[in-house]
């Protein structure tokens, strides 16, 4: 698989998760102060970096067919989860992800918690938990896409670029990135993960794809058509079931 | 340990276990066709994955309209997970 596809997949997937983590970090930092919040972010980043450093070489040691069955299957299951949510959101069956509302909720909770004199463990834990939980998805995607494509450094570079861009924009704006087209990005990443999962999972169980890597863009196009049709059908089903609900476009 | 287990379950299986089970079944079927017949088995996967996705979406939409709630339009519908 070519490097731009690996880079772009890691960049988009990491970008979505970084935007979600940034919302939590901003809520902690702006309401509780930055010292403990940044401590939590650094601790979580170190943990995630350690995971990549340990698991990356370990994955490379696993036989390729076994790796492709397990990781391909996990990627496929993961991709279908993302795609399901994106289709439900695009069809109006599920509310769109609202970073502003999440920021307000987290900030209100952070405001009311007790404030100790020394290290603010509430801010530390909130930032640590937010970055770790969102980052674990990134680690999984980066490792599985990078290891299967034999381009782990490219996948890590894509993820790092997304984090740098998100942090830079967040530091400039000092507010959640609510204008990022998060659902569209999740839609594309869901399609990409489903495509890679199908391709590698299939190869792992002994399937030979016609045209080898050339099958990837074809698979992506097929799933894009399926997902677009699914949005239309789901929107219709939701409107029939809930005529009171205005369906988002 | 329990929390780790819950986290891993949520991480891999997510909101709908049908997706994870469907993926296992589709990959197993493709592997079976590939090994048993030595014929091209790639064609099993895209339709199989499409069916799994369709079942997941159908279950989510059905969660919007349980029969008991449809009878009374004043009862609010539950949010889709």
What characterizes the major β-sheet of chain B? none
Share of residues in helices of chain A: over 70%
In whole angstroms, how far apart are the ends of chain B? 25 Å
Rg of chain A: 20 Å
Instruction: Please report the total strand number of chain A as a whole number.
Output: 0
Number of helices of chain A: 8
Can you tell me the residue ranges of chain A where pLDDT is under 50 for at least 5 consecutive residues?
A: none
Secondary structural class of chain B: mainly alpha
Please, how many helices of chain B?
Answer: 4
Mean pLDDT rating of chain A: 84
Name the shape of chain B in a single word.
flat
Largest sheet of chain A: none
What string gives the helices and strands of chain B in order? HHHH
- Fraction of residues of chain B in helices? 55-70%
Portion in strands of chain A: under 5%
Alpha-carbon distance between the termini of chain A?
A: 34 Å
Low-confidence stretches of chain B: none
Largest interface: A-B, 46 and 39 residues
User: SSE string of chain A, helix = H, strand = E?
Assistant: HHHHHHHH
Structure summary:
Chain A has helices at residues 3-32, 34-61, 64-90, 99-112, 121-148, 152-173, 182-204, 215-241.
Task: Give a verbal description of the structure.
The complex is a heterodimer of chains A (249) and B (81). Chain A is built from eight helices and no strands. Chain A has 249 residues and is an all-alpha fold. Chain A starts with a helix and ends in an 8-residue tail after the last helix. The interface between A and B is large, with 46 and 39 residues.
